[in-house]
Amino acid sequence: MNAAIQEYNDSQTPSDKEICDQLAQIITQNLPNAENKIWHAHPVWFLDGNPIAGYSKLKNAVRLLFWSGQSFDEEKLLNEGSFKAAESRYTAVDQINKDDLERWLKKAQEIQWDYKNLIKRKGVLIRLK
Questions:
Q1: CA 70, CA 11: separation in Å to the nearest integer?
Q2: Are the beta carbons of 62 and 89 closer than 8 angstroms?
Q3: CB contact set of 102 (below 8 Å; sequence gap of 6+)
Q4: Where does the record place the YdhG-like domain (predicted)?
Q5: pLDDT on residue 15
Q6: What does R_g of the chain's alpha carbons equal in angstroms?
Q7: How far apart are CA 1 and CA 100, in angstroms?
Q8: Mind listing the domains of the chain with CATH numbers?
Q9: Residues facing residue 64 across a β-bridge
């Protein structure tokens, strides 16, 4: 795992660190070709420069975000924002369902919207896959 991501995880409370460590491990295992780094102060995984998945500490939970998640057709993912992102939130590590997460990560590789060029396209998203 990227050292900066481990530092991010280590800076969390013990229960949130456990959630972050578990998410990072599962994401990294399932996106082996993804670049991962701290982006806008949060851990994010990228494929070909396009953000795919990441997580961030919110006041009351750790939010797992999929940039193209609204296109996954998954009941457990909640729409986030005005683009195509969807999220799941965790307050305890035992809430992470590995099967769900692995399925979402598979879809994250198969279904992608072009966030990398969002600014260049003046806020217009184009589906890549």
A1: 30
A2: yes
A3: 26, 30
A4: 17-108
A5: 97
A6: 14
A7: 22
A8: 3-110 (3.90.1150.200)
A9: 55, 88
Helix axes 14-30, 98-110, angle to 10 degrees: 50
Residues 6+ apart with CB under 8 A from 128: 50, 112, 113, 114
To which residue do tokens 């996106």 refer? 31
Mean pLDDT of all residues belonging to the chain: 90
- In the chain, the DSSP E strands lie at 35-39, 42-47, 50-57, 62-66, 78-79, 86-90
Residue from 98, 128, 96 nearest 113 by CA = 128
Identity of the amino acid at 5: I
Tokens of 129: 């896959």
pTM of the model: 0.88
81: CB partners within 8 A, 6+ apart: none
Give me the mean pLDDT over the 22-36 stretch.
96
CA distance 25 to 86: 20
- Helix H or strand E encompassing 19: helix 14-30
Helix (H, G, I), strand (E, B) or coil at 99: helix
pLDDT confidence tier of residue 10, bands split at 50, 70 and 90: very high
